[in-house]
Design goal:
Layout (H helix, E strand, L loop, with lengths): L1 H12 L2 H42 L1 H8 L9 H20 L3 H28 L9 H4 L3 H21 L9
Helix pairs in contact: 2-3, 2-4, 2-7, 3-4, 4-5, 5-7
């Protein structure tokens, strides 16, 4: 008899709607988790389009800044035109709805973010006069914030690469 009473009290304290609410939260979380790689891909596309365009808008400043980088300054013009061009091309490739192209662009974007992160880390560690010409708002970040920002995008890119394969890769 008492067990029956406890069951009734439990049902009064926790109505069935709370179970449905938990279920909808879990299904919402699953929905986001399944689409997170797409969000990361489009985030990379936006990030690279934004920074590439910002660098092209201030191309002479970008090239002049690159000419001051130790060991890389002699390639300032090549870097000055190459990096923004690569970023914009990657941004375009990331939104093309063809699996192989998008996957290649994601690999390249993640690799490029790893290179940028390594560059920033080396600049902070070994160079007295630190130079960053990332473009736009990103350029105004502090060094540690910028490295953390890049690391987050690097981890996100790796996550998207792991989560996207031909079986579950859906182009929207």
């Amino acid at each position: 008899m008492e067990k029956r009473f406890n069951t009734t009290v439990y049902q009064q304290d926790h109505p069935a709607s709370s179970l449905k609410r938990g279920s909808s939260i879990r299904s919402g979380a699953r929905w986001i988790y399944r689409r997170l790689p797409d969000l990361i891909i489009y985030g990379y596309a936006f990030l690279y389009m934004y920074t590439g365009w910002a660098k092209f808008m201030n191309l002479s400043t970008f090239i002049r800044g690159n000419s001051k980088i130790p060991h890389l300054g002699q390639y300032a013009k090549l870097i000055g035109y190459g990096i923004p061009s690569l970023e914009i091309v990657l941004a375009i490739l990331l939104v093309i709805p063809v699996y192989r192209i998008k996957r290649f662009a994601l690999w390249t974007s993640t690799l490029l973010m790893a290179v940028f992160t390594a560059y920033l880390s080396l600049m902070v560690q070994f160079v007295e006069k630190k130079l960053c010409h990332c473009g736009g708002v990103i350029e105004s970040m502090g060094w540690k914030t910028h490295i953390v920002f890049n690391l987050i995008w690097l981890i996100a890119g790796i996550f998207a690469l792991v989560r996207t394969n031909y079986k579950n890769f859906k182009i929207q």
